[in-house]
Fold:
Amino acid sequence: MSLEQAEAFARIRLLRSPNIGPISYRQLLRRFGNARTALEALPDLAARGGAPYRAAPESRIADEIAAIKRAGGRYLFHDFPDYPPLLAQIDSAPPILTVRGDAALAARPCVAVVGARNASAGAVKLSRDFAAALADAGFIVASGLARGIDGAAHRGALNGGTIGVIASGIDIAYPPEHADLQEQIAEQGLLIAEQPPGTEPLARHFPSRNRIIAGLAAGTLVVEAAPKSGSLITARLAAEFGREVMAIPGSPLDSRSHGCNQLIRDGGVLVQSPEDVIELLSGFDGIPRSTFREAPPAYTANDDLGDEPADIASLLTTAPVAVDELIRQSGTSAASVQLALLELEIAGRLMRHAGGRVSVNG
Structure:
């Protein structure tokens, strides 16, 4: 599948515009049928939400496209056939990815292997050995190219198939000592970035990267992790997405094992060998088609966002509340509430949270 050049440009510009996230992007395409029409509507929608608006400058998008080409990357849009099918199932799936390598790898059975950056020598070996065995069994191994467990998992699976998801732009290597490994993954596997080229890996980008890792895979294996590590965020997201969560137990005397032990205590599956992982994930029976992958229909008067937004701003506070609760309390249709939330989000007045909850900016 290919896009008309003007529409592809408009899609990138729409996503890079202020206050446009995956959910609002999807709703805008559904409402207006294409990104060009949605861009034209943004100022009016923002005004109705209570703020002036200016979309991302065209010159910035042109510079971004040129940088992607220089880096040897390409765009992967949410409705392209080779967009990762499991990732497409989640509500917060990135509408546009930048990739290098073989995108077809993401359609094969995939398991995420994550863990501590300051991992023990034994855990690093476990990660490498597990990844190699999983790759030999036909699984693609996804991870985040971090030091420690992630890097070992990529190296173990490199010859069989691995996906590296980075928190920076596709043209930035992080950590610097993994520059060669990142290049190898781009040449032999698949490298994925959500952020525009030139973006440095800031702390706020890592949870977004983690959701992609969890979304790509049928299950997430945590090899070693402290109680508040980013690996546990990946595991929590995997559970929210309905995927398997697995952990290798460790000594209670080592703080780097506490996160894995906690996962097991909270219901994660204890695994002791690659065969345990293979057995658990062998029952994963297919990849349902996501509604997010479908081409957006042209806007009609009966569009799923409705014609008139509900007046719900007074129902929102800085405390997150479920959208379903807003629908009940407002007494209006779900479509009207969604349109009101979209207008508030574009105006920069709304925050979206996990679990379909929303709040106003403090």
About this structure: The chain has two domains: 5-56+303-360, 87-281.
